[in-house]
Design goal:
heterodimer, A: about 280 residues, B: about 600 residues, alpha+beta, Dipeptide-binding Protein, domain 3, D-Maltodextrin-Binding Protein, domain 2, five-stranded mixed beta sheet, about 20% strand, globular, SBP_5 (chain B), signal (chain B), transport (chain B), SBP_5_dom (chain B)
Chain lengths: ~280, ~600
Amino acid sequence: MLAQVLTQLVVVVTLLVGVSTALFVGRDRLRKTRGAWRQRVRAATPITIALAAVLLFNSVARQIVPDFSWIIDWNLTFPIYDLEGEFIIWLQAQATPAVTAYFSFIYIYGYVFLLVFPLVAYFALSETRPLRELLTAYTLNYTIGLLLYVFVIAYGPRNMMPELVEALLYDTYPQYQHLTRQVNRNTNVFPSLHTSLAATVSILAYRTRVQYPGWNIVAAVLGISVAISTMYLGIHWVIDVLAGIALAYVSVELAHVLVGRWSISAWLDGRVQSLRRR
Amino acid sequence: MDTQRSGSRRKVDGDSAGGISRRAALAGAAGVMASTSGCVREFRSTVNRDDLEPLSLTITTLPADGDRESILLAREIAATLEAVGIDVSIEMRSQEEFRRAVVINHDFDVYVGPHPGGLDPDFLYETLHSLYADEPGWQNPFGFTNLLVDDLLEAQRDADGEQRRDAVEATLEALAIEQPFVPICTPLEHRLVRDDRFDGWADGHLATRTGYLGLEPQTDDSADQLRAVHMDARPSQNLNPLNVEYRDRGTVIELLYDSLAADLVATDGDHSLEPWLADDWEWLDESTLRVSLRPDCTFHDGEALTADDVAFTYRFLEDTALGGSAAPAPAPRYRGRVAAVDDIDVQDETTLELTVGTGQDVGEQALTVPILPEHHWSERAAAATIPGVRIAQGTTDAVVTDNLPPVGSGPFQYHDHTEREHVTLERFDDHFTLRADVALPEPTVDELRVGIDPRSTSAMQLIEADSADVTSSPLESYVIDDVDETDAVGLLESPSWAFYHLGFNARSAPFGNPRFRQVVAQLIDKAWLVEDVFHGYARPIATPVADEWVPDALEWDGADPAMPFLGSNGEVDVDAARTAFEEAGFRYDADGNLRVRQ
């Protein structure tokens, strides 16, 4: 069942990325990319390796993080519920089948597309800085997010108010359970990593609005939709989403400061050339 | 030095010269003191009195992913308690953390959750006897201590037959007054099964080993694998029969480990205690039970299972440290059953004589504990150690080990597992149930795969798509109305002996006060909660025992016969509740908060 859901995901996201590439990137940029890809790959390699390492570590660490969290035992679910439980109830009351279908689609497909497409779009730019900033911001999101997960135990609204939240995603489309279970542990809801990664893309899209004006608008709409979907589907509290947006902002700012500060490729270049000279 | 000191003294005097001289001030103060000493005494009497504090409590419970009904019950109860002037917060903990907090560390005010219960009411002995108030495990997590109840619990243990029935009745009536915990309801268990793949689902209750034995494969490849979906990941993480955090009723454990006798439970709840690993047993006198084992039984690793293993098991469950600790370290499960056995005498390879300190009914219940291989467990008597960390006394390796892979003697043996995905067992071909001369339900499939799928909806989908044969955990009650029964897929309803309850930690005020507990019990509208939370798929109860043991006086008759609800339709009558608290000796402040001595 997992394989089926995954295949579906790959097909849909590939389709979306294909259409968006045609729409936003354009033939001209792609042609230029064909000539310059070697150089761009080299520029993005160090941070890609860092991101891959963080993701790999994350997937292993997620298995043991809950155990550490329970040792620290800092359970924030009730304070959060006490503070804002009403809003989620209100949001849930707006549910209609069409809205549920939309937000379920956004939560799974829209989100993955939102994260994948900018990789393609920024790779097609002659300036590699946006691409490197994007990858750095992703890396920071995961790193800081994991750290917060260690300290905070929080269950999402669907665990506290199952009767109101109806766990729309999993009851309406039970097959997605298999997909999200691979990624998420139910005590890791603060902050919303879905929101933070989506917001990261939206913020960067705003900063590259000159190169990709159309994408800026699409990313804004998708980013907001992802944030709302996490609450609408009863997965996150408002506070998780706000924390996710804050995390996105911090990650983007940090990425801006960090990128270009140390150039591993330049350092490597120097090494390789000096070796060649010998 | 001297001159300096006198100089400074003079200086002080000089300073006060403008007002009252120091000596005069002192004299004056003394006079005032003398005249006001009575006043200060009164002041002290008035001020040094501790005020009663507004009651604030935390309900510990499980999140919806762990047990949907528990958090719903907890929230309803919290709302009611808030309405009558108690400040309530809810703490959700995962399955194992919930049990760790409640039954091991006793770190809770009140909790709401499921209790494994028991088909025989003797489980109440370990649950409530004051001897066990400090032990970790399902033995008395409430810290409930009452000498009269102790006597009653012991009396039902010593009696047999009709006398025992009377003794149980007396015990249950006393508990209905004391309310050491509030029994709320017993769920009606519903499971989906594939009728086209297997027949015989109605023969064995799927919460016990019998549910998975004796099934008749209906297609050519049915016999290859029985595919169960389990909604709780814990069996894929830990298969230790002595661990309490990871066990509920221990269904998978029953398939891996044999006991001397087995309670064979049918789907409709009918059950009888039958010889299992024991060939037979015989009472030599009032308290001596001779048990003969089936010949040539082995553990899954090929080692012979002998009377020594059986004797070891009872000794080990009584003290998992085997005398190696300053105080005995009893297992956190099976406590009451093991305590019934005073002494074991091994006669030969397959014969033992048990000296039983209880009546014969309860003595035979003691035969249902899992038999452990001595060669695996004797080394686990060592105290668990982690360098640099102080471990609680009595924490042996035995109670904390994951026990993977488990080695038992049961009808199925461990094959492999992936945490949170599955645990797969395979048929143990040497099991005695497969012998031609043994007429007991046997493993009929090569493999039993217990797949983990945490939600009822997706578990149902797996059954409907023919990717699974049975939901081994009961379905959550909110999905039962949505089940479409077909020729291939059937819905199986069976009674339960587990129950939902509200537990008080009697170790701290005001939960140690039975009057307080009584009023709280009357604030819970059990019948309404059964409709609201369980969609009607449960039975409200006034007493926590299996149906066949409920005395007439405690039979549910549309309302709680012992603790009737103060209100109607889930809505508590706040004034009546307030009066009930006040009549029980509690006080409210002007703002309507219940104030108690804490």
